[in-house]
Amino acid sequence: GDIISQNNKHFINISPACDVAVRKVNEDGTLKINANKVILAPLIPVLRESFLEKGIIKAHDPAKTIEKIIGEIVKGQRDKYALLPEYSDLNAKLIDFQNIETIEVNEYQEFNREATVAGIFLKDIQSRFSSYMARQGQPDLDKSILIGKYKNILKPE
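Above: the chain sequence. Below: its structure as tokens.
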């Protein structure tokens, strides 16, 4: 649940709590945890430029389309994103579940910790991430070709 940054890039740690619980602090100041790596989801600032760069909106999208996209994100209807609303001096950001990264624990300690998401909200974020990763789908098929093929096979003689 830590919100961290490095080189103007922001992330949220979405690793399971049991993996990142600190077991001890080593003599050199490094942390001993169960995991060798942590899972980070990038954070996208809620800004027009960021949304254009990430392809969330297009430059020619009318205001109505943008409002619809924002509404879907806020309501949790865009599976690959979750909204972190602004809080205190932290600006609103989207959690991007599609572009996760893993890094070594010792690398993680080099990031700047800016905040920590409260446990109750973190559980929801992790649940949404799990749902995103566990979703199932079928590739799009050209239904008109299939219908033509099968109607010919099944037509009466």
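Residues 119-134 form the longest helix (16 residues).
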